[in-house]
Design goal:
The complex is a heterodimer of chains A (about 375) and B (about 220).
Chain A lengths: L20 H11 L6 E11 L5 E12 L4 E6 L5 H8 L7 E6 L2 E2 L5 H8 L2 E5 L10 H11 L4 H14 L15 H13 L5 E5 L7 H18 L2 E6 L2 H7 L2 E6 L2 E7 H6 L4 H9 L7 H4 L11 E9 L7 H9 L4 E10 L2 E11 L3 H10 L3 E8 L1
Helix pairs in contact in A: 4-5, 4-6, 5-6, 6-7
Chain B lengths: L2 H38 L9 H16 L2 H7 L1 H8 L5 H25 L3 H9 L4 H35 L7 H11 L3 H29 L7
Helix pairs in contact in B: 1-5, 1-7, 1-8, 2-5, 4-5, 5-7, 6-7, 7-9, 8-9
The chains are: A alpha/beta (about 375), B mainly alpha (about 220).
Chain lengths: ~375, ~220
């Protein structure tokens, strides 16, 4: 059986509430440490290829999205992230493995039950996918019409949703009269119409400019916070993960190569792909004049290039000053940045260190709890 | 022009409008579901039935490639079965409908296929059934295209209806052949052509205006 009880998003007296019996059960569920609301178990997906050779899109994916969390899946295009998110609402069926959403095995549900289950899984899209023939309000009403709510209930709910996404004044506008950000707000309102437990975001900000992206992410964060809605998002943009996600999974070639707390993963990246996403961020890449002269081996008179990561409490320590004062080692700053990941400060500094002092320096820095990485040597 | 001529032209115009309207209505009734089915029954689509789709496609193409005048003659027994006679305006409606149905089906198929696949995906994602997707997403979104297609079909039907005049179908074509051609009345021929031109213009501009009004994709002041 799939549970189609709907979280009580609004105040009491909501005409569209699930049967009363569910409310007690829901309250009880809040007390028990939650079972992840979305769970993928050893999920693989292959597509029939054009030349008859099957193409593997996903391989042995294990992923758990805890209730109320925001989990971001980041990957390059073609890494399999679109397929992954479509498995969660059954738009794609896994070739093997299980997709459990709110206790129901999505892949095993018959068509009618799956359609019912989808009402508790909202989805937003990169290109918004709004009906051009319907106004903002009518677009938001569509999932409710489909679910068979009566007109009065639809009207009340649509008004609430328009207010929630801040578009009450645009209710009678057609999508062609709205900006990208406004269209995505309508998309979000539509996705929330049937009071889902999970929101799937398929590159929802990839077609928007940075400022609009920011406001949409803020809205999603607020919805997560206020409604306790679990969000699973896929993206190729570091900024999205950094701004909103609490947990991240890095996907590459159909496999999850790294997974965990956003701050942990991005301050101590283990996989090359994770590092490459970080390198995209401004300030993290080596300046070109250093990059072009970087050698793998030390040469007479060269300097070692070391990347130092300052995490959390150490992000503001004057470590280089201490290095100079206590050990009399002078370093040469090549590039650096300080920013925030998942709300915590994180700094990166690339410095040149005299070769003979390299071992001592690394030792000193590691002792102070900093992450170090020798990138190479420059003459 | 004599009052008698004007009466003849008015009568024939009425006959033509009657034939075209009834044929267009019935052809749309059959053509709409057929077109929707053709657009949604391919491999991996909403009502996937690739074989039925292919067979229907062949039937539609066969009907469309038969010259209309041959179709009219070829289906006379069928026309008699349906209309009880093979001459006159009611009889003419049968071949007109049969010719227009696959035409309309193809035009509607085209309009439906223009609808962004993302909308189907979104509708599936919020739990719409295939029938709901057709009714609430595909047809409303394709409506401007469907209206333009139907306009084109009505214009073609006006031309076809003039052709059934040649086999005793009545209407403006019949008038033009009997008076304009066989009785050497060039002024009658001219009048018939002028009325047809006016009708086509009227249908086209009504259709265009309606389609433009329904199209919310483009902003117009």
């Amino acid at each position: 059986m799939c549970h189609i009880d709907i979280p009580d998003v609004t105040e009491e007296g909501d005409p569209m509430n699930a049967p009363l019996g569910y409310l007690g059960e829901q309250a009880a569920q809040r007390l028990i440490p939650a079972e992840p609301i979305v769970r993928l178990e050893k999920v693989s997906k292959t597509f029939p290829g054009r030349d008859g050779q099957p193409v593997t899109a996903l391989q042995e994916i294990n992923l758990a999205v805890p209730q109320g969390s925001i989990l971001g899946v980041i990957g390059r295009s073609g890494a399999g992230k679109s397929t992954l998110i479509r498995l969660v609402n059954g738009l794609e069926k896994p070739s093997s493995g299980k997709v459990i959403v709110d206790g129901a095995d999505i892949a095993a549900l018959p068509e009618a039950a799956l359609r019912h289950a989808r009402r508790s899984i909202g989805m937003i899209f990169q290109h918004f996918n709004l009906l051009s023939s319907r106004t903002a309000a009518q677009n938001i009403a569509l999932p409710l019409e489909v679910a068979g709510y009566d007109k009065a209930d639809i009207r009340t709910r649509v008004d609430e949703l328009l207010a929630l996404v801040g578009l009450s004044d645009k209710r009678n506008r057609y999508p062609s009269e709205l900006s990208g950000g406004q269209k995505q707000r309508v998309g979000i309102a539509r996705a929330l119409a049937t009071k889902p437990k999970v929101l799937l975001s398929d590159e929802a900000t990839s077609a928007l400019d940075p400022e609009t992206t920011r406001s949409i992410l803020d809205l999603l964060g607020r919805i997560n916070d206020e409604l306790g809605l679990t969000i699973l998002l896929i993206t190729h943009e570091m900024a999205v993960i950094r701004n909103i996600a609490r947990e991240v999974a890095v996907i590459e070639g159909g496999r999850i190569v790294e997974q965990g707390d956003v701050f942990e993963v991005f301050t101590r990246p283990q996989h090359e792909v994770t590092r490459s996403f970080l390198a995209d961020e401004s300030g993290r890449a080596l300046p070109p004049y250093v990059q072009s002269r970087l050698k793998a081996e030390a040469t007479p008179g060269s300097q070692a290039v070391v990347r130092i990561g300052f995490r959390g409490p150490h992000a503001t320590d004057p470590v280089l000053a201490r290095l100079a004062r206590d050990l009399n080692i002078e370093t040469n700053i090549l590039s650096g940045s300080v920013d925030e990941i998942a709300g915590r400060p994180f700094g990166t500094l690339v410095v040149g260190v005299p070769e003979q002092a390299l071992a001592t320096t690394l030792d000193f820095l590691n002792k102070h709890g900093l992450d170090t990485e020798v990138l190479g040597h420059v003459a | 022009m004599s009052p008698e001529m004007i009466r003849l032209i008015a009568n024939s115009t009425g006959e033509t409008l009657y034939m075209v309207a009834v044929a267009a209505l019935i052809a749309t009734l059959f053509g709409l579901p057929l077109g929707v089915f053709l657009a949604t029954s391919g491999k991996g689509e909403l009502f996937a039935a690739p074989w039925v789709n292919r067979v229907l496609g062949v039937v539609v193409n066969a009907t469309r490639s038969t010259p209309f005048i041959i179709l009219v003659v070829a289906i006379i027994p069928f026309t008699r079965l349906i209309a009880g006679t093979s001459i006159g305006t009611n009889a003419a409606i049968v071949p007109l409908t049969i010719a227009a149905t696959p035409f309309i089906a193809r035009l509607i198929e085209g309009a439906i296929r223009e609808v962004d696949q993302g909308l189907i995906e979104a509708a599936r994602a919020f739990g719409a059934s295939p029938i709901q997707i057709v009714r609430k997403v595909l047809i409303p979104e394709a409506l401007p295209g469907i209206v333009l297609g139907l306009t084109l079909a009505v214009v073609s039907l006006l031309g076809f209806s003039a052709m059934v005049g040649a086999v005793g179908g009545g209407g403006l074509g019949d008038l033009g052949i009997r008076y304009g051609y066989q009785r050497f009345m060039p002024e009658m021929m001219l009048a018939v052509v002028v009325v047809l031109i006016v009708l086509v213009q009227a249908v086209q501009s009504i259709g265009d205006r309606l389609a433009r009004r329904l199209n919310k994709r483009i902003r117009h002041a």
